[in-house]
Amino acid sequence: MNGEFFIPLLAAAIQSGTPILFATLGEILTEKSGVINLGVEGMMVVGALAAFWIAQSTGAPLLAFLIAGVAGSLLAGIHGAVCLWFRGNQVVSGLALTILGTGLADFLGTPLIGQSAPGFGPVHLPTLAAIPILGPVILTQDLLVYISLLCAPLLWVFLYKTRWGLALRSAGEFPEAAAAAGLNVVAYRWLGVLAGGALAGWGGAYLSLAYTHLWTNGMSAGRGWIAVALVIFAFWRPGRAIAGAYLFGGVMALQLRLQAAGTHWPSSILLMLPYALTVVVLVLAARLERGSEAPAALGINIDPHE
């Protein structure tokens, strides 16, 4: 009973947490450059729609996944233009981006509701899949799960072990000093915004290409907001984002399984669980602020001509 319940639950937690992981890594990268982007939800759902449409049109899910990153970057570019060129309010711009992205995806995606598209399925490696617990939980996932797991250490290496990562972090920590050292702060912030948008778009692509293979409006279902909160929970560290994403994914998978099992709990209470956990996580993160690596100049605009 325990194995029959918990092993599939752990595997489902990884699947549910993967789109959140992509989006969280993207927001970490963006915020490390000094820009807050609250438009993650909009970028995710636009990425999901772009991926679904390309996969359905071409039958090439890998191409669709890549195009989803481009779609996320294009939407993030609007936020970059508002904040980096015109020095608009980053919070307001991000909220507007979410409204724009979700509205655009609902409008363009309505004719596609209920349709299916080719996507990614589990990778079956007979020898590895036979490993107890590890096999059925991790080693039989789809390709995008492994890409998301690879993105976290790659992001850490980029941020902390490369010259470009150091420059990007300096743009978020002390942009005046970075500019005095000869760095193009605006260019590095653009890099953070656009690359972060691509990762968010990939998170959306996972939903339509691997998680469901179907299109429905509102597919992101608040995962973008969870990703924004998870950045704080992870203290802006890519490694901790993995654990946080799978924690939230586990809660989402659990509430779905409880509903399918016919529990007597009201469905509204079950649907509330991931968002209630978000509030708890934010409270705990506030109390553990000493471990935070929040950029000192986060959300502060700079003059692009200086």
Write the layout of secondary structure elements.
Elements: H1 2-32, H2 40-58, H3 61-85, H4 90-109, H5 126-129, H6 134-137, H7 143-161, H8 163-173, H9 175-180, H10 185-211, H11 223-233, H12 238-260, H13 267-287
What is the annotated CATH architecture?
A: Orthogonal Bundle
End-to-end C-alpha gap = 64 Å
Count of all domains? 1
Which H/E pattern describes the elements? Answer: HHHHHHHHHHHHH
Q: According to CATH, what is the topology?
A: ABC transporter involved in vitamin B12 uptake, BtuC
Spatial shape: globular
DSSP, total strands: 0
Q: Which stretches are low in confidence, meaning pLDDT under 50 for 5 or more residues running?
A: none
Keywords:
306 residues; mainly alpha; ABC transporter involved in vitamin B12 uptake, BtuC; 13 helices; globular
Molecular structure report:
The chain is mainly α. The protein has one domain: Orthogonal Bundle (ABC transporter involved in vitamin B12 uptake, BtuC), CATH 1.10.3470. Helix content is 72%, strand content 0%. The protein contains 13 helices and no strands. It has helices at residues 2-32, 40-58, 61-85, 90-109, 126-129, 134-137, 143-161, 163-173, 175-180, 185-211, 223-233, 238-260, 267-287. It is globular, with a radius of gyration of 19 Å. It starts with a helix and ends in a 19-residue tail after the last helix.
